[in-house]
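Researcher: Quick one. two chains, 578 residues in total.
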Amino acid sequence: MKRHIIYSIALMLGILPLTGRAQQYTGISGLIHVPSAEMHHEGDANIGIHYLNKEMLPDIGFTYNNEKYNTYDYYLSITPYSWIELSYICTKRMDLVNGEPKYRRKDRNASIKIRPLKEGKYWPAVAIGCNDVGSSVASLITSSNNNVQLYFQNYYAAATKHFDLGGNILGVTLAYRYYTRDYNDKWNGLVGGITFRPSFFPQARAIAEWTGNEFQLGIDALLFQHVFIQASLKDFKYPNVGLSFQMNLLGKRYKY
Amino acid sequence: MYICNRNYNMTLMQKRTTRHKTAPLLALMLGLVLVCPTQRMKAQEHKMSFDIFSGLNFGFRDISYDRQYDLYIALTPGFKWHFGDHWQVAGQMIVDIVDQFDNPYYNPYYNRQRNIFHFRMLDISKELRLGMLYAKASAGFFTESRYGVDLKLFLPLTSWFALEAQGGLTGLFSTSGGWGFSPMQRFAGTIGGDIYLSRSNTQLRGVIGSYLYRDLGFEVEAIRHFRHSSVSLYANWNNKDDFDGGFRVVVALPPYHRKQRMVNVRPAATFNMPYSIMMHEWTNRMYHTDPEENMRDGWFSRDLLEWGSHTMQPDFIITPKE
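Model:
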């Protein structure tokens, strides 16, 4: 219990100086675990690393001695046009090496998000996407994909609308998500969340979301125009944290 | 991620190599005969200069069960001697710094005495314009351990559509344990088209060809050019290894403002990072005839061919130094 209180205090303290727009553990824009219809700016590229609590991971594929373990992933993502985002992600897996469990293996996957409808004054932005498309691509380009796993694969459609509340920006996201693997079906169905970007520090964002199975709180921020950080508590007790370097390849500068 | 290093494979290839000492000289002579009569030297539009540069090859792969990664780091020093009117002599070598790719699991020659210096290429090239057609002829030693002659053609039909072709007659050379050459008998070539959408600086490229290692195939690629970088997604197929795909990243390396002197010492023009899903090393491949050849700049000099990414603001603002 004491540990949870410490995490919560750290999170609340972090809200003041922090926030962005990323479902950061994949490098694709979104909330924390929940996808949204927000997009990075055209030309944005991210390279980052994210600590993943075992509660963020599938129940299969990330176990050792029948117990799930914490791990981390790293990614490279890019927004070549304002309507599409692509990401390549490696998630480390544990294996026994000389009698010692070590992070020697990894799951490679790719994500894509497309936004067919841009947010307007009266309508929300709408995006569709897929995480872990690697197996889909592999099945298209080769017949020998028997070893390809689908640990993270899911498809989704999301809508996001922002409201200006006296300079503060409130974002509301609603999404429908479908995981293709049974062991992830707890995150299937309607998911969503809200974000709050304060007027006095618009680079920061506070997030609350429903993943389909539990609530999650988080904060993220773009600092010094290039350093993006995100911290979250899954189910109010399991921490996740990530750091990425962000730059715009078109040479444009954005505050957030 | 994996950036392939095929230097150590030269030793393996050497077994298939016969020795023809005069072959490279013949190749050079044939190349000069090919390109010399096409144009007489005109005014020095493309001024004489001598560039010395070096980049860094960085590769890591994750295919070994008991190692986190295998690392490969090497310097790539080279030179380019522009001696006017788009004539160029270029050379490059590889200097290994860290080479964990050369390990006992994947290379039976692990314990041999290795040379950390590898010859990569040395050739002479000439770019020229013949009406609407742009051509680049090269002769000498190319990458992929090939020597011979090569011709590249580019025909811009409109501001957004162009045809391209490359063909070369080459043989294999090896520097492991002395120079060795196979006969210059292998033809490899590609032909295809390019579409350039200037509004979004997007290039779509498709080629079919008979590739270097005798595979037939095709490749399609979508390239997005940014201010100082380009990112592409590609997919290819060949009759030996089936489909593959991946992405490529090219970043122009600073400084972007440079002084042009007679002799210039500079970093390599670009950093290149290819990624392949299936890691097919020996298919859909062609050699390079320029040490800094990349998908961003294409085959031709910017001051000769104004098409595609060459219509964007240049990466390097070069001011002559008197």
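Chain A has one domain: 2-248.
Researcher: Thanks, that's what I needed.
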